[in-house]
Amino acid sequence: MSERLPAHLEIGGLIRLVESNGGSAMVIAKGERDAGTVLIVTMYRGEDAQLFERMPQLDGTRPFIATKSQDIEKPQEFSEYLERRRRQDPDIWILEVDIDDAERFIALLPR
After folding, report:
1. Measured in whole angstroms, how far is the alpha carbon of residue 95 from the centre of its chain?
2. What burial class does residue 82 get, using C-beta atoms within 10 Å of its C-beta: 0-12 exposed, 13-18 middle, 19+ buried?
């Protein structure tokens, strides 16, 4: 049996965690129910979007790491990047989180 939490349960838990920390969350791409990859887009009041993905580490942990930031001068590139990721991997989940202090929120997540 896999130790990994099914994606739909992880997403549900993330949404509750965001809301309990005063933020809001919305699923913008719904992937494979059990094994889909989870990406988190953080922002505050709709600005400064940043993408976080799980990255395996040598010690076996899989923390969320920032992999892309929205360019203020070219905000559309960020959306286009997310759309490309969805086309490449239809099983992907993308959760958009609007919360104050995104780095603190990401630090709360299990590794």
Report:
1. 5
2. buried
Q: Residue 44 belongs to what domain range? A: 7-108
Count of domains forming the chain: 1
pTM for the structure as a whole: 0.92
55-76: pLDDT as tens digits = 989 998 999 999 999 999 998 9
- Domain containing 51 — which CATH number? 3.40.1530.20
Residues 6 or more apart whose Cβ sits within 8 Å of residue 55: 62, 63, 64, 65, 67
DSSP 3-state percent helix, strand, coil across the chain (nearest 5):
30, 30, 40
**Rounded (10°) CA dihedral 94, 99, 103, 107:** -80
Q: Is residue 92 part of a domain?
A: yes
